[in-house]
Amino acid sequence: MLTKYDPDHAPDPERWLAQDEMQLMEIVQRYHRREQIPLPNERVHASYHVMVENQVALGEKTPVRDALDRLMGEGMSRHDALHAVGAVLAKHMHRATETNVPVSREAYYADIRALTREGWLAEYGLTGTGD
Questions:
Q1: Counting beta carbons within 10 angstroms of the beta carbon of residue 75, is it exposed (0 to 12), middle (13 to 18) or buried (19 or more)?
Q2: What is d(CA 25, CA 97) in angstroms, rounded to the nearest whole number?
Q3: How far apart are CA 7 and CA 83, in angstroms?
Q4: What pLDDT is recorded for position 131?
Q5: What is the separation of C-alpha 49 from the centre of its chain, rounded to a whole number of angstroms?
Q6: 9 closest CA partner among 34, 31, 30
Q7: pLDDT of 43-68, one tens digit each?
Q8: 115 touches 88 (CB < 8 A)
Q9: pTM here?
Q10: What dihedral angle (degrees, nearest 10) is formed by the CA atoms of 104, 108, 113, 115?
Q11: 115 backbone dihedrals φ, ψ, rounded to 5°
Q12: 22: exposed, middle or buried (Cβ count in 10 Å: 0-12, 13-18, 19+)
């Protein structure tokens, strides 16, 4: 059972996926409180961390782990890379909510594969968190 979270260090995928998502959200929230990171909505922020970490933990079943590795190779911290992927996910989820059309996995994955540090910084800046 996980009790601590540090977004700059990948959690063990099997342990992460075996954990209850509500518990994961709580440990993500505790991390941000402990680090005194101000957030407009800590539950929403934590939910994006959990969703993205879930996708990373799935390994090659999604392009997210490769995108995280690529973004870190471009100089981003793992935490900022999680935010970059979370911002793309948030955009797709927001569009789905507004249009009442489900998120297109193919379109989301295409955007994840195209995601770069430069593109993310141009659109969101260093504070883009998907909130």
A1: exposed
A2: 22
A3: 10
A4: 39
A5: 4
A6: 31
A7: 999 999 999 999 999 999 999 999 99
A8: yes
A9: 0.92
A10: 150
A11: -65, 130
A12: exposed
Smallest CA-to-CA distance from 59 within 99, 108, 103, 10 is with: 10
Q: Can you tell me which residue has the tokens 């009442």? A: 100
Q: What is the rounded CA–CA span in Å between residue 114 and residue 131? A: 21
Q: What is the DSSP string of 53-120?
A: HHHHHTGGGSSHHHHHHHHHHTT--HHHHHHHHHHHHHHHHHHHHHHT----HHHHHHHHHH--HHHH
| Burial of 8 (C-beta count, 10 Å sphere; 0-12/13-18/19+) | exposed
Rg of the chain, C-alpha, whole Å: 14
